[in-house]
Design a protein that fits this description.
Blueprint: E1 2-7, H1 11-16, H2 19-26, E2 30-34, H3 45-50, E3 54-58, E4 68-72, E5 78-81, H4 86-89, E6 94-99, E7 102-108, H5 116-136, E8 142-148, H6 172-183, E9 186-188, H7 189-193, E10 202-203, E11 215-216, E12 219-224, E13 233-236, E14 248-251
Parallel strand pairs: 1-2, 7-8
Antiparallel strand pairs: 1-14, 2-4, 3-4, 5-6, 6-7, 8-12, 9-12, 10-11, 13-14
Length: about 250
């Protein structure tokens, strides 16, 4: 099972840059999208269906903002839209698809880069998310939580960490939350298999950051540790460029 995750930073823009062609070439079994910035009627649903995918979308109520989706070759046994919390569900941040004993989640964690108010929102979301996942594990023990976490876990996951110590996405309290979350019984699938630095999933559009590889690793497939023995591969595809993010992949 090959599962990809991709923050497309606007699915309509990504389609215009070759997203569908990449999907057709790469052939993921499941693909989680974040930051759709579109409603379902603005997405080329027929194209996904013609490629053999079932598709599910959870857009934000605010037009042109946020939103997550999942496409899959196999029809899920069950799909859950949101977390039954309007504060977060109105922003289209969580979508779950169950395949047998495995649940795949597409999640888009908030960014705090626009100021203190959104940083506070982000931290409250993180606490709620951690509690929600802990409860979910009681009934769904094998989780693959894929998406944009908007946090670099460790210094190895960001270029020039000393320069970003006070930047949202690398704040001590954010990294502390991530450490606690992993400590709840999860694995960072990429770091489980790859220890080398300079592996990133997002680059600023400014000052040629991508060409210089001045990036951040903020996109993850986080797995429950029950899936450790089923983890076959995890990798990043930095040469795929329909967004300021790139796809990340896990194989189980």
């Amino acid at each position: 099972m090959k599962i990809a995750s991709y923050n497309v930073n606007g699915i309509r823009a990504a389609v215009s840059k070759g997203l569908l062609e990449w999907i057709n070439d790469f052939q993921p079994d499941v693909l989680c999208f974040q930051e759709l910035k579109a409603t379902a009627d603005q997405i080329p649903l027929l194209d996904f269906e013609m490629m053999g995918y079932c598709h599910y979308w959870f857009p934000a109520k605010k037009k042109g903002y946020s939103g997550v989706g999942i496409i899959s070759r196999q029809k899920p046994d069950n799909v859950v839209f949101g977390m039954d919390n309007p504060l977060y569900d109105d922003e289209g941040r969580f979508l779950r698809a169950d395949f047998g004993d495995i649940s795949v989640i597409s999640v888009y964690h908030p960014s705090g880069t626009t100021g203190d108010e959104r940083q506070d929102f982000k931290m409250k979301w993180l606490d709620f998310f951690r509690e929600y996942i802990a409860k979910l594990r009681l009934s769904r023990s094998n989780l693959i939580i894929s998406g944009d976490y908007n946090i670099c876990r460790e210094a190895i996951d960001i270029n020039n960490p000393k320069a970003h110590l006070t930047t949202s996405g690398f704040l001590p309290e954010e990294r502390e939350w991530f450490a606690k979350f992993i400590g709840d019984g999860f694995i960072d699938s990429f770091r489980e298999l790859h220890k080398e630095p300079e592996n990133y999933s997002w680059w600023s559009y400014r000052a040629g950051a991508r060409e210089k590889n001045l990036g951040w690793r903020i996109d993850y497939h986080i797995l429950t540790d029950t899936l450790r023995d089923r983890l076959k591969a995890a990798y990043i595809l930095p040469d795929v460029k329909q967004s300021d993010h790139c796809p990340i992949v896990v194989e189980i």
